[in-house]
Amino acid sequence: METNYYYEQQLSEAAQALKNGQLIAFPTETVYGLGANALLPEAVAQVFSVKDRPQDNPLIVHVSSFEQVKSYVDNFHPLTEKIVKNFWPGPLTLIFKIKKGGLPAIVTGGLSTAAFRMPDNKKTLQVIKLAKVPIVGPSANTSGKPSPTTAEHVYHDLQGKITGIIDDGATRIGVESTVIDLSDPMSEPMILRPGAVTKEQLEAAIGGKVTIDQHLIQSSETPKSPGMKYRHYSPDTTVMMVYEEDWQEAIKWAKDNQLRVGVIAGPKIAESVRFDVAAVYMYFDDSVKAATQGLFAGLRSLDEKMLGLDLIFVEVFSEEGLGNAYMNRLRKSAGQKYFEK
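-> structure tokens emitted (341 positions)
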């Protein structure tokens, strides 16, 4: 199969391909998604096959309006309207209990709930409107590997396996959406996966408490949301997290053990170690925002076989605000491994 690029003037072609059951990768503000008609089980099955994704891992349904969600849900959490008004379109996924038989079981992982998101990307919203169907949209990469933040990343992983890619340049945020569970109208909202919409922002918007689920899902368990597995977003090269005070010791240890090392960090750290390592991917500044935007691209860049790295050291940030999303992805990329003196 030839994988084509779709640009502004070809969005109606992409929409028709999706409606007909073909797979089209699409841009969002977070990462690129792999789109299929959510109402066609055979199309959704292709998504799992192409990604080599476990079928117990539910998919996020992307919509172009909140009205679309109402076709599948009839018992909303009382805070839904406030949350949608403040954060849609945007990097926030909402989990609701759905009407029985409302969506194919392959979309929900056999659960009675489903996850919905309205992405903040004009091209993708237009395509969903033109297709007139909701589309599933897991990250457009091989399952378990770093998510794609450019069309080129998607092409690298899925060329020849999907019909096309809607190209809209690099994504703005760089990690997947926050996922919040609203499936029980009687319970407080719970974050199942951190993202760019933070706990603090949600609490300010609703004027109440939001909890965070810290449970790491093992391979034998069925997750309620994508991205809850213990190990995820992992390149082939071993990744290790490094605290700020441990960088010099980590570099010395690697040199003493004759390890070929790559570093992913902001300018402050990257400049200080660049002559002592084999490769460096530098965030555009030292902020957690830059780190979040660049993490997956950095992991992909340094995982190239031609570099022949034994290990990738990555900068650690404080787990607060956006740092929660960054560290959630980094800890899973590293299999929870930190450099220890």
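The chain has two domains: 4-217, 238-334.
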